[in-house]
Write a structure and sequence with these properties.
The chain is an alpha+beta fold. The chain is built from five helices and five strands; from the N terminus they run βααββαβααβ. Strand 2 and strand 3 form a beta hairpin. The radius of gyration is 18 Å and the shape is elongated. This is Large ribosomal subunit protein uL11.
Length: 144
């Protein structure tokens, strides 16, 4: 008999730095899940990643107060900011000066890492999707 799923919780937590404070504690507490068990398991699962990398996680809560979770790849914006070597995107994309630049080859590298979490079938379509995200952040995409 399969366990009954009572809900999904989606959070974005820095890799290796989960703790019971908000947003983790309240989100799990209202479903009656063991917060410290999740914190320990999440930090163990993300210890090989660069500490502090924003990591989306989908937690499946079951009726017997157990849970399972799946970590996703960091958001596109995280990779684009890192590739362009900038701290944050433009406040007025498309209007003011662009804040950084990324090459098509950098986008292809990001696409290879992100592919399993993107709704694309080819690397080319993933690169186009990433280029759109870059433009929305005020980052210029150059050949190379």
């Amino acid at each position: 008999m399969a366990k009954k799923i009572i809900g999904y919780i989606k959070l974005q937590i820095p890799a290796g730095k989960a703790n019971p404070s908000p947003p983790v504690g309240p989100a799990l507490g209202q479903r009656g899940l063991n917060i410290m068990q999740f914190v320990k398991e999440f930090n163990a699962a993300t210890q090989q990643m660069e500490p502090g990398t924003p990591t989306p996680v989908v937690i499946t809560a079951f009726s017997d107060r157990t849970f399972s979770f799946v970590t996703k790849t960091p958001p596109n914006t995280y990779f684009l900011l890192k590739a362009a070597k900038i701290d944050k995107g433009s406040t007025t994309p498309g209007k003011g000066p662009n804040v950084g630049r990324v090459t098509k080859s950098q986008l292809a590298e990001i696409a290879k890492v992100k592919m399993k979490d993107m709704n694309c079938t080819t690397i080319e379509s993933a690169v186009r999707q990433l280029a759109g995200s870059a433009r929305a952040m005020g980052v210029t995409v150059v050949e190379g």
